[in-house]
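Posted in: Structural Biology > Protein-Ligand Complexes

Title: Requesting predicted complex, zinc ion in pocket

I'd be grateful if someone could produce the 3D structure tokens for the following input. Sequence and ligand are given below.
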Amino acid sequence: MSEIRKEILAANQSYAANFGDKADLPMPPGRHFAILTCMDARSDPAQYAGLAEGDAHVIRNAGGRASDDAIRSLVISYKLLGTREWFVIHHTDCGMETFTNEVMDKLLSSSLKSAILDGSGWHDNGPGPGSSEGKYINWLTIKDQTQSVLEDVKRIRHHPLVPGDLPIYGYVYDVKTGKLIEVPEATAAGKVV
Ligand SMILES: [Zn+2]
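-- Reply #1 --
Done. Output follows.
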């Protein structure tokens, strides 16, 4: 078994040993909100936003982007599980700023192995073959965090399955300070209509 698997299972054993009354938590989030955010390993919404099990929905993907699938989760979160406020939180130094659709497509076309990033951008050093299937995916990369938060709040706000009475707030998490910084134009775009 890999070292990581052993570590995970050991950690889970002690977690489950102290599970306590978490067994009685109801399914709907107790604090009635959802966060859409990036999968970045340095940012943990449970830590930076003070969440405990049972509090909130956290939807994570690369960039914290309002993809169709993220919106699917948000709509379920509201419609069936009672969240009433949503946060879109992108972050500084996001990996999604380091490439474009074209770069990703080119990398995947030459090799499926991990690429490396240096001062002049992403390069493949793994062997081929690659695949050209990457060109069919919009990787939802980011040029500017303020813009991407605004864009995603707007996309959610204007989605036909999202009700107007639910506020959506826009923030950027600073990986250097741990602070949440509001994107006021995004929160304004996400206000109740
Ligand atoms: Zn990120």
